Amino acid sequence: ETGVTQTPRHLVMGMTNKKSLKCEQHLGHNAMYWYKQSAKKPLELMFVYSLEERVENNSVPSRFSPECPNSSHLFLHLHTLQPEDSALYLCASSLRTEANYGYTFGSGTRLTVV
Amino acid sequence: GENVEQHPSTLSVQEGDSAVIKCTYSDSASNYFPWYKQELGKGPQLIIDIRSNVGEKKDQRIAVTLNKTAKHFSLHITETQPEDSAVYFCAANGANNLFFGTGTRLTVIP
Q1: Which of A30, A45, A94 to probe the B interface (max B CBs under 10 A)?
Q2: A1 near A102, Cβ under 8 Å?
Q3: What are the residues whose beta carbons fall under 8 Å from the beta carbon of A62, sequence distance 6 or more?
Q4: Are B16 and B79 in contact (CB under 8 A)?
Q5: Which pLDDT belongs to residue B1?
Q6: Which residue in A has a C-alpha nearest to residue B32's C-alpha?
Q7: Per-residue pLDDT reduced to its tens digit, B47-87
Q8: Averaged pLDDT for residues A72-80
Q9: Is the pLDDT of residue A52 over 90?
Q10: Which of B9, B42, B98 is the best mutation test for A, with the most CBs of A within 10 A?
Q11: Cross-chain Cβ contact A102/B45 below 8 Å
C-alpha cells in the first residue's frame, strides 16, 4: 500500500450508468489529483485540488465531475460515459501543488465502458 | 505548458546489463524531475528524483543525470534484474502539476 487507496479496483459500466470513483489518503498531503492513463498516451491530468479547492481543470468533459469534501478524500463522479473513456484512472496526492514535490499514486481504477 | 518527450518506448536488456532511458523537456522554468516505475496492476511509484541545483543523483543501482542547458535528463539502471521489468515514466514540473513522458517499457531478460 502506498498510502493512497482507490476503490473500486475494477469497474464495468454501461453508457447510461452513474458511478463514482473514490480516493483516500492519510499522508497529510494538501493536494490531490485525478489522472487518466490510456494505452500509448502520456498520463493526462484531469483535475487538481489544493486544500479542497479545485485549482485546475484540464478541459475535461462535463460527464466527469470531481468532488473533494476534505483534504483526505477525492471522488470522481461518472455519468453517460463513452467507450473511449475506458482507461485506468489514477489518483495521486502531494504535499503541495507547487509540483516540486513527488506524487504518491494509488493503484488506480480500471474502468471499462460498455 | 511543459512538454516532456521520452525515449525509447520499449527497451529489452539482458540481466546484468545496464539500461538508459532519456527524456527532454521544453520549459526552462522546470526545476524538479522525478522518475516513476509502474508495475503491472499498480500505480506509478516514485523511484528517484533530481532537482535543478544538482547534475547527478545516485541511489544504489539507479542514477539520474540532468543537463539543464540541453534540457534533458536520463535514468540509468545498472546490473539490471528481472524485477526491474516495468514501465518507467519521467516527469517535469509545471506551475501546479507534473507533466509526464509517454513511458518506457523495460524488459530484463533472465
Answers
A1: A45
A2: no
A3: none
A4: yes
A5: 75
A6: A100
A7: 999 998 889 999 999 999 999 999 999 999 999 999 999 99
A8: 96
A9: no
A10: B98
A11: no
